[in-house]
Amino acid sequence: YLLVTLVVLLIVWPGCWGADDLTVLQQARTLEANSWQHFLTSAVFILCLMFLPLPGGVVLIQTLLIAGAVGCFLAAAQTLACQRMQKPPAAGWFAILYIPFLLPPVLLHDMQPFRSTWSTWTELFAVFLLVWWYLRGQRVTGRQLALFTLLGVLTASWRSENIYYLAALPVLLAFLAGKRLLRPAAAVLSCCVLWAGTLACNAYSNSLMGEAWLYQRVALTYQAAVLVQDADPAEDAEALALIDPIFDVQKCRELSNVHGPELRDAVVRNDSDLTEADWQACRKTCARYRKISCTTASAPGPWTNSSARTLSWPCPIRMRGWAS
After folding, report:
1. Helices (H), the chain
2. Coil, helix or strand for 312?
3. What is the pLDDT of residues 47-96, one digit of tens each?
4. Backbone angles phi, psi at 140, to 5 degrees
């Protein structure tokens, strides 16, 4: 499997990089943490660059780790088969288990140094350890539990979508303790470290991000720009006045043909006087009105492969040419 992935990496060298990953890479060169893609991603990039100081080195180390994880999966399957079957199949049959990992979408995903790639394999390996420990039926050692706890912290904190692992992993540890594969005291200690580590990572990531509403504000930029461009300046003046402290209404109108990061940098206000109250007023204004579909031109970029995007958005204002 390592040989196959290395061949693929050689073809796409130095890997499949997106705009955000290049930003993380640029900051990692000066040991800076990127708040947008989580500081854990920056930490991984910095460590990889210390071993192989070139962009392709990050993907190469990532490929080596993924191949090692796949090797563990297959070795565990073969070991379980030998232990539980009177006539286990020949070793060659276990090559069938490579198929899911050799699918083109998986191989190309592994060539991307995205945060999602690292977090996905971390999550998969953490779940694998629990299944492996249960099926083999042997007591979990302290070192194994420490490794799992570390993987659990990374899994639960690296992406906000995985926060449910704060509840799921303790339940699974309790299940292992009930099967007498883990001491209850060790399971409790692992859970405490898991919760404390995840909360600490999230708190530090939030401190790097700055304002709590910054992420939401940037994510709302493109929809808000379309909305403002279609508004009636006279009839919707009150609503536009609530949007203007967050998004520059005048620039939204003037830059109707600009898209992507250029539009975001131009219309999002960076005034230090902005407050949480300003953001809440803008957000609530948007939420009061019915949902419409807006189709706008979009320049091709890493976020889209089409020339247009359809936005379904709660429109806070009357639209010219639309019935009120």
Report:
1. 2-12, 19-28, 39-51, 55-84, 99-102, 104-110, 115-136, 142-158, 165-178, 184-209, 214-219, 221-229, 237-243, 249-254, 260-267, 276-287
2. strand
3. 999 998 888 889 999 999 999 999 999 888 888 888 777 787 777 788 88
4. -80, 130
| Tokens of residue 265, six digits | 């940098």
| Contacts within 8 Å (CB) and 24+ apart, 26-29 | none
Write out pLDDT tens, residues 83-127: 777 787 777 788 888 888 999 999 999 998 888 899 899 999 999
How many whole angstroms separate alpha carbon 109 and alpha carbon 124? 14
- Asked whether the beta carbons of 233 and 317 are under 8 A apart, the reply is no
At residue 38, φ and ψ (nearest 5 deg) are 75, 140
Q: Give the span between the Cα atoms of 40 and 153, in whole angstroms.
A: 11
* CA–CA separation, 257 and 290 (whole Å): 26
How far apart CA 1 and CA 98 sit, in angstroms, is 8
Distance of alpha carbon 99 from its chain centroid, rounded?
A: 25
If we measure between CA atoms, which residue out of 245, 243, 268, 242 comes closest to residue 255? 268
Which residue's entry shows tokens 């040991």? 31
Single-letter amino acid code for the residue at 156: A
Residue recorded with tokens 């003037």: 254
Q: Which residues lie across from 314 on neighbouring strands?
A: 291
